[in-house]
Amino acid sequence: MSDRLCTVLLYSDDPQVRDRMRLAVGTRPAPGLRIEFVDASTYAECVRLVDDYEIDLMLLDGEASPGGGIGIARQIKDDRDDAPPTCVVIARAADRWLAAYAEVDATLVHPLDPVTTGNTVAELLRTHAPA
Known about the structure:
Blueprint: E1 4-11, H1 15-25, E2 33-40, H2 43-52, E3 57-61, H3 69-79, E4 86-90, H4 96-101, E5 106-109, H5 114-127
Parallel strand pairs: 1-2, 1-3, 3-4, 4-5
């Protein structure tokens, strides 16, 4: 059986945060899954990438400025019937209520734990796999 190649959009205004996300996910978060990444540093780039690529998962920085990942997740889900699943990285676990209101599929907390991050990404990709 060949591995499924999945495209993960990484969003943060901070390139170091995107690098930490990429390292925490890795290119093989679980058996049978391979990851390629596309990066966005603005809301406009996120929208363009979602329009131009088959994005399997959006991993968004909830602390990004001026557009936070929670707001971007909500906007893309409101604008598209086929929005990819979203995982937002937040600074405080107490912000999970806001992420739930934005209808994100999962949250992670800074600093990212590679095991938890990889497992969360793999679960979202498997749960939302195309038929």
